[in-house]
User: Which sequence fits this backbone?
């Protein structure tokens, strides 16, 4: 009982901090996602979304030890130092993952709900995702009521087939199998400058992450949301986040530990003003920086 009381007090205290930040200018569209991260509670309207998506996750996990080949995110530093338009970061090594592991590799339920709430409350219409994996995160995003078009890109052919099965009931969604740069070349020109939600995942390497943002930027709508996944995957990715969070194109950048959320400036924003940086880890909990491939700073 004492533990529950302590948890309630902590949640209440942290929510007061969130409310204070909202009053200080933190984008109000983030309030539902942050409240959920602090309290674990959100409105009941998303219960059916969660049941459907997590049911699909269990279907995938239920295939157990069956293995498929995937491209694993490459070693930090592997992309060199070119973040320009003409760079072409190479994919990682091919590894065999079990279906059970694949089900766990996609964004978990907690962060899937956060993605849904962000897309819903920003009333996102056109979403572009790099790194479909099994399609779990795309299912959460495509479930937001305002979404009319979602393109998600997956380099692994086997994973893209799983993602297609996951998203077959979503008329707004389409899975593209190909290298990220190739998909950017073929898909984004068809969307014009109408992408209002970009989710950059799948290639957890500093230079590659910055490169993909640079390539997507010309197609982003004024005020668009850009979510960078796994910003604490390695020290290398933390460095990427620290660079991206200071980009002059953003009005707000929010560090949630596991993900970074950035808001593109609107036409009325001062283009010379630095982004307002919101470090929410002291409230949400400090993210542990990963050590993939045995790589250390």
Assistant:
């Amino acid at each position: 009982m004492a533990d529950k009381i302590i948890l309630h007090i902590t949640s209440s205290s942290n929510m007061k901090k969130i409310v204070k930040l909202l009053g200080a200018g933190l984008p109000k569209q983030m309030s539902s996602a942050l409240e959920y991260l602090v309290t674990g509670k959100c409105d009941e309207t998303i219960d059916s979304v969660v049941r459907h998506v997590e049911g699909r996750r269990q279907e995938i996990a239920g295939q157990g030890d069956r293995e498929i080949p995937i491209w694993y995110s490459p070693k930090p530093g592997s992309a060199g130092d070119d973040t320009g338009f003409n760079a072409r970061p190479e994919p990682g090594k091919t590894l065999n993952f079990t279906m059970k592991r694949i089900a766990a590799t996609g964004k978990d339920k907690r962060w899937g709900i956060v993605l849904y709430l962000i897309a819903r409350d920003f009333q996102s219409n056109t979403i572009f995702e790099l790194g479909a994996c099994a399609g779990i995160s795309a299912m959460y995003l495509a479930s937001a009521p305002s979404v009319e078009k979602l393109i998600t890109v997956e380099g692994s052919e086997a994973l893209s087939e799983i993602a297609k099965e996951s998203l077959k009931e979503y008329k707004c969604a389409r899975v593209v199998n190909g290298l990220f740069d190739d998909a950017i070349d073929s898909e984004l020109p068809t969307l014009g400058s109408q992408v209002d939600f970009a989710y950059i995942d799948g290639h957890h390497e500093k230079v590659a992450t910055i490169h993909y943002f640079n390539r997507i930027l010309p197609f982003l709508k004024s005020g668009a949301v850009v979510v960078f996944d796994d910003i604490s995957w390695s020290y290398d990715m933390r460095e990427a986040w620290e660079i991206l969070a200071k980009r002059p194109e953003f009005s707000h950048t929010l560090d949630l530990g596991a993900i970074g959320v950035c808001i593109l400036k609107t036409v009325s924003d001062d283009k010379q003003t630095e982004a307002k940086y919101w470090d929410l880890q002291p409230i949400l909990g400090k993210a542990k920086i990963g050590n993939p491939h045995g790589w250390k700073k």
